[in-house]
């Protein structure tokens, strides 16, 4: 694994070696056991909520952005970015999703509302990058994804 710096990794550093996508062992080692548990919990939730819909795709964003795992069919649901001892979920919210978010604005955790308010709005939507380092963060991400695209009936 090549790091973004020549020193020891810091919280939030990304996996930047461009030879091959990281495997589960590399992800587990990079994230640490707690973050890896949340990573697998979110991936399991996506697979259970949208069975057969998404084929996760590793993307390499260059030496600054490193590797990320995108869940997309025609539109992206989310992109997960493994970072040292945590990971982030990127959620792009179009106009319809922003309206739904605003309808529930006061039901969301203040940290999520702050991240939403701070995110820049581009022509294709608001790009939220949500660090996941707790069960509450994970809950925010799953609720946001379910709002963006309702899970399939089981």
Overview of this structure, please?
This protein is an alpha+beta fold. It has helices at residues 24-31, 33-49, 62-65, 95-103, 110-118, 135-148; strands spanning 57-60, 67-72, 76-83, 86-93, 121-122, 125-132. A six-stranded antiparallel β-sheet has the order 1-2-3-4-6-5. It is globular.
Keywords, separated by commas or semicolons:
6 helices, disordered N terminus, 23% strand, single chain, 40% helix, six-stranded antiparallel β-sheet, 154 residues, alpha+beta
Short description:
The chain is α+β, with helices and mostly antiparallel strands. The chain contains 6 helices and 6 strands. It has a 6-stranded antiparallel sheet.
Termini gap: 39 Å
Helices, by number, come to 6
- Give the beta-strand count: 6
Low-confidence stretches: 1-5
* Beta content: 15-25%
């Amino acid at each position: 694994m090549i790091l973004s710096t020549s020193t020891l990794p810091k919280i939030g550093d990304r996996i930047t070696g461009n030879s091959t996508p990281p495997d589960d062992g590399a992800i587990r080692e990079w994230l640490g056991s707690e973050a890896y548990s949340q990573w697998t919990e979110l991936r399991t939730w996506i697979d259970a909520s949208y069975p057969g819909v998404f084929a996760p795709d590793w993307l390499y964003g260059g030496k600054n952005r490193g590797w990320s795992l995108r869940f997309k069919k025609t539109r992206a649901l989310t992109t997960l970015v493994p970072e040292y001892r945590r990971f982030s979920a990127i959620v792009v919210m179009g106009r319809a999703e922003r309206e739904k978010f605003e309808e529930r604005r006061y039901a969301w955790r203040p940290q999520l509302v702050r991240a939403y308010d701070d995110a820049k709005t581009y022509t294709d939507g608001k790009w939220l990058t949500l660090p996941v380092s707790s069960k509450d963060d994970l809950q925010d991400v799953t609720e946001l994804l379910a709002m963006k695209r309702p899970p399939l009936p089981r």
